[in-house]
Amino acid sequence: MLIRGADVDGGPADVRVAGDRVAAVAPALDRVAGEEVIEAAGGALLPGLVDEHLHLLALAAAQASVRCGPPAVRDAAGLAAVLAAAPADAAGWVRGVGYAEPVAGSLDGAALDRLHAARPVRVQHRSGALWVVNGAGAALLGLDTAGAPGVERGPDGRPTGRLWRADAWLRRRLRSSPPDLGAVGRRLAELGITAVSDATPDLDDIALGALAAADLPQRVTVLGAPLDRPVPPGLTAGPLKIVLADSGLPDLGTLTDRIRAAHAAGRAVAVHCVTREALVLLLAALDEAGRHPGDRVEHAALVPPELIGRLRGLTVVSQPGFLADRGDDYLRDVPATEHADLYRCRSLVDAGVRVALSSDAPYGPLDPWAVLTAAVSRRTPAGAVVGPGERLEPAAALERLTGGRRVVPGAGADLVLLDRPLAAQLAAPTADAVRTVLVGGVPVYASP
Fold first, then answer.
1. DSSP 8-class letter at 341
2. Which has the closest alpha carbon to 364: 95, 127, 130?
3. How confident is the model at residue 179, as a pLDDT?
4. 357 phi and psi, to 5 degrees?
5. CB proximity list for 421: less than 8 A, separation 6 or greater
6. Hey, CA dihedral for 225, 226, 227, 231, is it positive or negative?
């Protein structure tokens, strides 16, 4: 393939793709026999975008779920209405996602019964850490006798309807089939995403099999793959996902031992940290266990300034899209003295810390161009700016969505061709600009 007249690194160039590699980049290249020609007409040719932290199966399932939080739903009456109108799945359940406390307060089974008791309902909190089921759902799941550690119980020992980090248990209990990932793969390609890291922890064989069988057009790395067996063909095992849950942090020794086990197996770690306490614990554990190339901090939602320097040598995988999605809630609920600590970017980059941007979809906005905009503007839905000193320049934000790769001879041919020059795209980022996407030199998307 010969891509003619593209904007490459700010200048016009022709780019030859041979097999799965960029073979040549020059101001002008002659077409060779049998070579397909794409006229770029000055559109930017970029390395494919990478989403370093999302949840593929949850993303697919969310597409068949009813939205239960802002902006679709803003109060209890609205939530009751959407639950009543929602179609049930094949097993009779109503599945809701995206719940947030401003809608109807702290939700439990009794509160959900007051909203909709006629059918079994399960509603996921927008953080992804909590499911709430109503009385009919609790009965079907057998919560009264369930021994899963995530089943919350009240002082009387009865289940509250709240299930913490119990996704795998819930899937087994429901005997649900994995959702179809085809639409997810197509949407990722339309956005210019050529590689993803699935950050779902503790993936079982069923989930791994579903991810492998989906044959997504993107390269897929799984962080939740177990240490004791290889992943199925078509997937790559990444750093081991470890969750430091806000509700119950492990002791230092337990965390240190788990990090050591991952490193001994030749894998880095990717550790979920959204609080200061979790970040301090992780850094202490890494001091004990030692660091491995590729060790990552997922989210780093709150980074006090005194810890910035200690993050050097690690990769921080951040989601500034949360500021655009729910930043006003952060400004209300997080102490004002900590607002500058939220989803830091610029201060980390300036300190020499590796930063990657990602979506955490479906819990955050999926569109990488919206993530780029959020990293640059840091504006909340109401227009406030969270930590103005943490803004990235547009080109710097894009670099953290492409992994710093460039379109040069010998590079992999995971490429995105836009319909406009890079300067125009960075001035007003939009997924509508994506024209053609290649993965390994093979076209996986072409705009209509």
1. G
2. 127
3. 86
4. -100, 150
5. 7, 42, 43, 44
6. negative
**Six token digits for residue 266:** 């030749």
On the question of pLDDT at 337 being above 80, the answer is yes
Assign 389 to helix, strand or coil.
helix
The 10s digit of each residue's pLDDT in 142-194 is 999 998 889 999 999 999 999 998 888 898 898 877 888 999 999 999 999 99
CB 43 within 8 A of CB 413: no
Using one digit for the tens of pLDDT, what is the confidence trace for 53-82? 999 999 999 988 999 999 999 999 999 999
Can you tell me the distance from the alpha carbon of 344 to that of 382, in angstroms, rounded to the nearest whole number?
20
CB 342 within 8 A of CB 323: yes
Rounded Cα distance, 65 and 98, in Å = 10
Q: How far apart are the first and last CA of the chain?
A: 20
User: What are the b/e assignments for 72-101, b being 16+ CB within 10 Å?
Assistant: ebeeeebbbebbeebeeeeeebbbbbbbbe
8-state DSSP, 107: -
Pick from 132, 94, 92: nearest CA to 110: 132
Closest CA to 364 of 145, 119, 158, 199: 199
Look at residue 176 in the predicted model and tell me its pLDDT: 79
The model's confidence at residue 93, banded by pLDDT at 50, 70 and 90, is: very high
C-alpha distances (whole Å) from 235 to each of 59, 123, 224 are 18, 30, 12
- The amino acid sitting at 7 is D
3-state helix, strand, coil in the chain (%, to 5): 35, 25, 40
For tokens 């597409």, what's the residue? 63
Instruction: Report the alpha-carbon distance of residue 8 to residue 184 in Å, rounded.
Output: 29
Q: Which residue from 254, 199, 260, 267 is spatially nearest to 227, judged by alpha carbons?
A: 267
**Count of helix runs (H) and strand runs (E) in the chain:** 15, 23
